[in-house]
C-alpha cells in the first residue's frame, strides 16, 4: 500500500479532524431532533474525504526485485512552485515531468537497491521509506505535484539539509556496511531571504550520487495548483507584483547554487534535459547480486476513486435533503401569502 497525500498529513488531520469533531458535536447535542441524522452522513463524508485525500494505491508488481547487495538510494525532490516552470524539454513541460522520468529510469537501472523518496517545499516529507519495490517508488514519483500555491511562502534549496543529516546518520548507524546514494533533484532557485544552509553534514554519509538540475536560464512560467487534479487549461499562471504591476512570474535555474550543493555533498552536478540519458548520473554505482530477476517497472494504480464514489453518494443525500427543505420552504411561503 502506498499513499500520496494531497496535503501534508498533519494539515489533513487538523482540517478534517476539526470538521469531524464539529459534526459529532452537532449530532450529540440533539440526536433525536428532526434531521439530526444528517450530521452522521456529514461525518461519513469527512472520513471518506480523508481517505480520498490520502490517495492510496496498490502496487501491481507483486514480485519486486530484491537484492543481496548493499545500496540505499535516496531521491530528494524539490516540489516548490518553481518546479512547475514550463521549460523542460522541447515541448516546454513542467520540470517535474523530467523528475518523474529520471526517477523511473534510475530505479530501472539500479533495480535491486533500496529506494526512498523524500520531497521538500514548506516542509520536508518522506513519501516512501527504504524499499526494494520499484513500482511503489515510480507510483510515488508519478503522483508528485508542486506545493499548493496558496501555501507557498518562498523556497529554500537547503530545506531538507537538517532532515537528511539526521536520517542518513541514523541509517548509517543501523546499516554501517551499506552504500548510500543520494540524488538531489531541483532547480536551485532560492527565494527566501536567508542564505541556504550547507549540505556538508549530509555529505559525510553520502558515498555516491548526483545533483540533477532542471530548468533553463531563460526560465518558464508556472501554473497555480490548488491541490486537485485539473487540466492545465483550467489553471492560471502564478503572478507577482513587479515594477510594472501584476505580471506572470518566471522561474530560472540557478546552476551555481546546484553546483555548490553538489560540492558540499561530494557528488557531481548534471543538468538534465529530456534528450539526455541518465547514464552519467549512475556511472560507477553497482547494486550487487540481485536475488530475483529484474521485472519491468509497473505503475501503481490508485484507488482513491472508491472513496470518491462513496463521497458522491453521501453528497447526493445532502442534495436531496436540501431539495426537500426548499420545497417545504416554498410551501410555507405559499401558505403565508394565501392567508
UniProtKB/TrEMBL annotation:
Every VWFA domain range: 72-261
InterPro entries: VWF_A (IPR002035), vWFA_dom_sf (IPR036465)
Listed name of the protein: Ca-activated chloride channel family protein
Swiss-Prot/TrEMBL keywords: Membrane, Transmembrane, Transmembrane helix
Any Pfam family hit: VWA_2
Xref: PROSITE patterns: VWFA (PS50234)
Native species: Mycetocola miduiensis
Ranges that cross the membrane: 6-27, 39-58, 303-326
Amino acid at each position: 500500500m502506498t499513499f500520496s497525500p494531497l496535503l501534508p498529513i498533519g494539515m489533513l488531520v487538523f482540517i478534517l479532524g476539526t470538521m469531524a469533531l464539529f459534526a459529532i458535536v452537532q449530532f450529540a447535542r440533539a440526536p433525536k431532533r428532526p434531521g439530526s441524522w444528517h450530521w452522521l452522513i456529514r461525518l461519513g463524508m469527512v472520513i471518506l474525504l480523508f481517505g480520498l485525500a490520502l490517495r492510496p494505491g496498490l502496487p501491481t508488481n507483486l514480485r519486486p526485485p530484491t537484492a543481496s547487495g548493499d545500496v540505499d538510494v535516496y531521491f530528494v525532490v524539490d516540489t516548490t512552485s518553481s518546479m512547475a516552470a514550463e521549460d523542460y524539454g522541447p515541448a516546454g513541460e513542467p520540470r517535474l515531468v523530467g523528475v518523474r522520468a529520471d526517477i523511473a529510469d534510475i530505479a530501472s537501472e539500479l533495480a535491486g537497491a533500496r529506494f526512498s523518496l523524500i520531497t521538500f517545499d514548506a516542509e520536508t516529507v518522506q513519501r516512501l521509506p527504504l524499499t526494494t519495490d520499484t513500482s511503489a517508488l515510480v507510483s510515488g514519483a508519478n503522483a508528485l505535484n508542486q506545493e499548493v500555491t496558496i501555501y507557498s511562502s518562498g523556497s529554500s534549496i537547503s530545506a531538507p539539509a537538517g532532515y537528511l543529516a539526521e536520517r542518513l546518520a541514523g541509517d548509517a548507524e543501523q546499516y554501517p556496511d551499506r552504500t548510500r546514494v543520494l540524488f538531489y533533484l531541483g532547480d536551485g532557485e532560492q527565494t527566501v531571504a536567508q542564505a541556504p544552509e550547507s549540505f556538508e553534514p549530509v555529505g559525510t554519509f553520502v558515498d555516491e550520487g548526483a545533483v540533477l538540475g532542471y530548468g533553463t536560464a531563460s526560465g518558464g512560467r508556472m501554473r497555480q495548483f490548488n491541490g486537485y487534479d485539473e487540466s492545465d487549461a483550467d489553471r492560471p499562471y502564478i503572478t507577482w507584483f513587479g515594477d510594472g504591476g501584476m505580471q506572470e512570474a518566471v522561474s530560472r535555474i540557478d546552476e551555481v547554487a546546484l553546483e555548490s550543493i553538489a560540492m558540499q555533498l561530494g557528488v557531481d552536478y548534471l543538468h538534465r534535459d529530456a534528450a539526455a540519458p541518465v547514464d552519467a548520473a549512475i556511472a560507477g554505482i553497482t547494486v550487487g547480486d540481485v536475488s530475483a530477476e529484474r521485472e519491468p517497472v509497473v505503475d501503481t494504480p490508485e484507488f482513491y476513486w472508491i472513496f470518491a464514489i462513496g463521497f458522491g453518494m453521501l453528497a447526493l443525500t445532502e442534495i436531496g435533503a436540501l431539495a426537500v427543505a426548499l420545497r417545504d420552504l416554498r410551501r410555507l411561503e405559499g401558505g403565508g401569502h394565501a392567508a
